[in-house]
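Technical note accompanying the year-one report. For the benefit of new consortium partners, we illustrate the data format agreed upon in the data management plan: each record pairs a sequence with a C-alpha cell string. No post-processing was applied to the example shown here.
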Amino acid sequence: MNRTLARTASPGLRPRESFILLAGLSYVTMTVLAGPLRMYLSLAGLSAFIYVPNLLLLLAIGWQLIAEPRERGFTAMHLIALIIPCYALAISLQFVSPVQAAMGFYVLLPFCFGLACGPVLLDHWQAVGRVVPLLWLVTVAGVLANQAVEY
C-alpha cells in the first residue's frame, strides 16, 4: 500500500492533498476488507482500530474546510458546507439522544468527505484510478473467499 501511495504522489502534491488521498484510500481499503479486519481485530482486542479511517476522513474534512477558503476565498458554498452539519446536529439533538446524533454523523461522514474533498480527488483522478481496479479485485476475491471462509 505504501508503494502505491509513493507512486501516486507527484512532486506538486501538497501535504493537504496527500493527506486527503491517504484518508480516502484508507477508508475505501478498510471498507473493502471490513469483514476479515473486524473479525481479526476483534480477536486481538483491537476492534476500535476499525474506526481509524473514519477519524482520518474527519480530519481531512476539517483541514479542507479550513484551507480551501484561504486559498480560493470564502464563498457561499463554504458557508453552506459549514452550516448544514451544524444545523442537522442541532435539530437531531432536540429529537434523539446524543449517541443517535453521533451515529447519524458517522453514517454521513463519507458523504461529507466527498462534498468537501471531492475537488482534490478529481484533481488527482489518475492516481485514484490506478488504485480502483486493485481494490475491485480484492473485493471480488473476498466475495469468492467468503464462500469457503465465513467472516
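Partners are asked to follow this layout when depositing records. Residues 98-123 form the longest helix (26 residues).
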